[in-house]
Amino acid sequence: xxxxxxxxxxxxxxxxxxxxxxxxxxxxxxxxxxxxxxxxxxxxxxxxxxxxxxxxxxxxxxxxxxxxxxxxxxxxxxxxxxxxxxxxxxxxxxxxxxxxxxxxxxxxxxxxxxxxxxxxxxxxxxxxxxxxxxxxxxxxxxxxxxxxxxxxxxxxxxxxxxxxxxxxxxxxxxxxxxxxxxxxxxxxxxxxxxxxxxxxxxxxxxxxxxxxxxxxxxxxxxxxxxxxxxxxxxxxxxxxxxxxxxxxxxxxxxxxxxxxxxxxxxxxxxxxxxxxxxxxxxxxxxxxxxxxxxxxxxxxxxxxxxxxxxxxxxxxxxxxxxxxxxxxxxxxxxxxxxxxxxxxxxxxxxxxxxxxxxxxxxxxxxxxxxxxxxxxxxxxxxxxxxxxxxxxxxxxxxxxxxxxxxxxxxxxxxxxxxxxxxxxxxxxxxxxxxx
Length: 435
Ligand SMILES: *Cc1c(COP(=O)(O)O)cnc(C)c1O
Hints:
Helix content: 25-40%
CATH class of the largest domain: Alpha Beta
Main location: cytoplasm
EC number: 5.4.3.8
Pfam families: Aminotran_3 (PF00202)
Number of strands: 19
Largest sheet: 8 strands, mixed
Strand content: 5-15%
Number of helices: 13
CATH superfamily of the largest domain: Type I PLP-dependent aspartate aminotransferase-like (Major domain)
Family: Belongs to the class-III pyridoxal-phosphate-dependent aminotransferase family. HemL subfamily.
Structural class: alpha/beta
Strand order of the largest sheet: 4-13-12-11-10-5-9-7
CATH topology of the largest domain: Aspartate Aminotransferase, domain 2
CATH architecture of the largest domain: 3-Layer(aba) Sandwich
Bound molecules: pyridoxal-5'-phosphate
C-alpha cells in the first residue's frame, strides 16, 4: 500500500526532523511519533472547539482531544477565561489556595464513593501514589492487575504476563527491575475462577487489585458489570483493597466515572485527564479513613512541588463545572452512540469487518465482527486496516489518535453536524481500506 500525501505535510516534516536532535525519537511521549501510521507526526499549532490546525495549515476534526482531557474541546472560552484570570495573579505559590479547595469540594460533593482527595500532577503519579497508599495501609507488597489495562508508566505496572495463566509479571520495559515486576500478579480480564484461585492462594501478600473499570488504553474492552461487581465482592472477601484506575473514565462516562456508572464502590480511585481541564492534574481519592494514612497525618509519604497549583485548579474547576451542566453527559453519550451506530450500519451494509464499541463519549474502531473484551482477542494483523483508515482520514481532515489501539473521544464541542461529517469521511476511508 502506497500512502500518497494529498495534503501538505512539509512543515511538520521539517519540524519533526529538527525534533530528532532534541528528543528521543523526536517526541516527548512515544505514540506521538506516528510509528504505527504513515508519514511524520503532525505538529499542531492551534485548536478551537472540535477542530485543530497543524503547522501546514491543514484543519482537522479532532477525535484524540489530547488523549482524553479535552471533554469541552479546544480553547473552551469559559475555561480559558478562568485560567487567564488566574495566571495573571501568579501561577504557583507552593501553599494551599482557595481554588484547590473549590475543586476538591466540587468533586467530593458530587461523588458518593470518596471522602478525601489528594491532587498530583499526572495520571501516572496518581496511580503510583495510590499503590503506595494501598501497600502502606495493608503492609503487603504484591499487587494484582489485569492484562489489557494500562496504568501509566509506574515501574510496578510496566509488567507483562509471563508464561502460564496466572503469573507473576516480568517487566515490559528495560529499567524495571525483575524483583519489582515479580511483585505484580497479572490475570486475564473476566476470568472469575482464576481470580478466586489466585486470591485464595496469595491474598495474604496482596495489597490491592487495580483495574481500569472501562479498559480504554488497549482498544476499548467494555466489561460485563457483573465482573466489576465480582471484583468488589472478591476484594472484600479476601480483604484486599480495590483500586479503580479512572484516569480515563473519571468525569468522562459521567461525573462519577465508572464507579457511578456501574454502581460499584472501589476503595481507592485514581483520576487524571479530564480532571485538569487540559492542564497536568491527577488525583487519588478514598474514604477519610484510608486517606488519613497519607502524610502529614499518616506514615505514607507523598508530595509535589506544583501539586494543586492555582492555574491547574482553575482549569479543572472550570471544566468540571461545565460537566455538571444538566444533561451534559446524556448529550455526549447520545451523540457518540449515533455516530458509532451510523458507522457500524455502513460497515454491515458493505460487509466490512468493523464494529464500533462505545460507552459515554468514548469510542473505538474495532476490526472483526465479534465483541472484544480481552486484549488477546485483538488481531494485530488488522492494524494494517487502521493504518489505511488513519491515513485517509488525515487526507480528508479527520484526526484520530495515531494507533489502532487508541480510543477516540467526542467532546461537548463536537456538533451533530461535525459528527455527520465524521461518519461520511470514516465510511469513505473504510471503502479505501476494505474496498
Ligand atoms: C492516561 C492514563 C494513565 C496515565 O496518565 P498520565 O497522565 O499519562 O501519566 C493511567 N491510567 C489510565 C487508565 C490512563 O488512561
